[in-house]
Amino acid sequence: VQLQASGGGLVQAGGSLRLSCAASGRFSSHAMGWFRQAPGKERDFVASIRWSSGSTTYADSVKGRFTISRDNAKNTVYLQMNSLKPEDTAVYYCASRPSILTVEYTSWGQGTLVTVSS
After folding, report:
1. Is 87 a residue whose pLDDT tops 80?
2. Mean pLDDT, range 111-116, rounded to an integer
3. Less crowded by CB within 10 Å, the N or C end of the chain?
């Protein structure tokens, strides 16, 4: 499976961006997740969504501001980011969790940079 993330860019604080993650190839996935890594920090979980039920989970830091969604027909997951803050600046990665039997995300996209200016 190949994951292609896109949609990053430079935005002012308070602004919005929508990230996309398109999956291609032999694709079998239970859930998709978005993670982010700020400069000098570890990679953190942002949000996840299950393909079948649409059930979502969010990190506390983005609840109420970010929304994850999916388009099953297009094998694409989105991350709508509103009310962006400078601390949201990071490289954002999408990833696939292949099975409900594992919590591990095994396929990763290349990342897309989000920069929020104050």
Report:
1. yes
2. 97
3. C
